[in-house]
Design goal:
Shape: globular
Order of helices and strands: HHHHHEHEHEHEEHEEHHHHHHHH
Structural class: alpha+beta
Distance between the termini: 21 Å
Oligomer: single chain
Helix content: 40-55%
Radius of gyration: 21 Å
Strand order of the largest sheet: 1-2-5-4-3
Number of strands: 7
Largest sheet: 5 strands, mixed
Number of domains: 2
Number of helices: 17
Strand content: 5-15%
């Protein structure tokens, strides 16, 4: 278990797993995991995706009573994380205020949403994965509102009108500096179907992340979304989802809402796979209610099909969802036109070559 059909691992390798254990296990076990990681690698040559785990490692080692020269550097990483999060929080606040002024109240997901009511987490986890989620029927209006307030899509030349029908996420930056923000019309990764997406939308509640004007998901939807993000394919791995899942599973979850293989098989499978991974590989203790519900669930843990790298089939489903929100009928001609526009092609004759190049790049 753990590798997608495309061969991309959704579980951490042995080295990253040691960092995750150092961040999540208790007492001597955390220190032992850290010592094993340090025997393999120094802080000077830490891998990029592992760097994100250091603030949580620092926090957990301090709770375990650890001491040593590494802690001074880890504390420095935590302080920088806190500072960077303050700056990003200001950007999210400005963007959400702009959208609220336009009559659009975003759903806030990612790191800043996870820090709602728990400000101490701002020194334990970077929130640069924060996203503003808009219903698809409001996505273009939201993009226009942000552009009117000085935010520009990145990279240069990105046009939400051409991008959104096929790719739900567009990044925006205000000015030449500062972190980019994600504006998206989808909560779940693209591999999950619209019925699961609609179920998550039903669990939105009118709360706000720190300093921002927007809605949040309830704890059950937040945990399910983290699990979905964890198993989803991505070009570069980001293991913060493991930390998030371990923290969120200790909240007041609606276990019956998490496990419903008959209605939402892919999402239920993702939740089960992640819970089993946390318990069996990362070594995180499961709450009794969650463990009992997992044992009673009908479907066994597996790597769902949503973990596959998105291809043209996924693009068609995104296009169909976009059309449904606009009360339009998706057509092959309209889909091809969106592809030509998004890929910058001048005519349909260029389409076969463009498709072939992308298929070869996926190999």
């Amino acid at each position: 278990m753990g590798r997608t059909e495309a061969g991309q691992a959704w579980q951490a390798d042995a080295e990253t797993l040691l960092l995750l254990r150092a961040a999540l296990q208790a007492g001597p076990a955390a220190q032992a995991a850290w010592d094993k990681w340090r025997a393999r690698r120094s802080l000077d040559d830490i891998r990029g995706h592992d760097y994100y785990l250091l603030p949580a490692v620092c926090h957990n080692l301090l709770l375990a009573g650890a001491a040593g020269a590494d802690l001074a550097r880890l504390k420095g990483v935590s302080r920088k994380t806190w500072y960077d999060n303050q700056l990003l929080g200001e950007h999210v606040s400005a963007a959400s205020s702009t959208l609220s002024s336009a009559g659009i109240r975003p759903l806030i997901t990612g790191g800043l949403a996870l820090a709602a009511g728990r400000p101490e987490r701002l020194s334990q986890r970077s929130v640069d994965d924060t996203a503003l989620v808009i219903p698809p029927g409001q996505a273009l209006a939201a993009a226009q509102a942000l552009r009117g307030a000085g935010w520009q899509p990145v990279p240069d030349g990105t046009d939400p009108v051409r991008t959104f029908p096929l790719w739900p996420r567009v990044r925006f930056r205000r000015g030449t500096a500062g972190p980019p923000l994600v504006l998206t019309w989808r909560i779940l990764p693209e591999g999950f179907r619209s019925d699961s997406e609609q179920e998550i939308w039903r669990r939105v509640r009118p709360d706000a992340a720190p300093g921002a004007q927007g809605n949040l998901l309830d704890s059950t939807a937040r945990f399910a979304t983290i699990c979905a993000e964890g198993i989803a394919w991505r070009a570069e791995r980001d293991w913060r989802w493991v930390l998030d899942a371990a923290n969120e599973m200790r909240t007041d979850l609606d276990c019956g809402g998490l496990f419903n293989p008959a209605q939402r098989p892919a999402l239920s499978s993702a939740v089960q796979a992640v819970i089993a991974y946390l318990a069996d590989e990362v070594g995180v203790g499961l709450p009794d209610a969650l463990r009992a519900t997992l044992n009673d669930a009908q479907a066994g843990p597996s790597a769902p099909g949503a973990a596959k790298r998105p291809g043209l089939t996924t693009r068609w489903r995104m296009y169909a969802e976009w059309c449904a929100a606009a009360h339009q009928t998706p057509t092959a001609q309209g889909f091809a036109g969106c592809l030509r526009s998004a890929w910058g092609l001048q005519s349909g004759w260029q389409m076969p070559g463009a498709v072939l190049r992308r298929m070869m790049a996926r190999q």
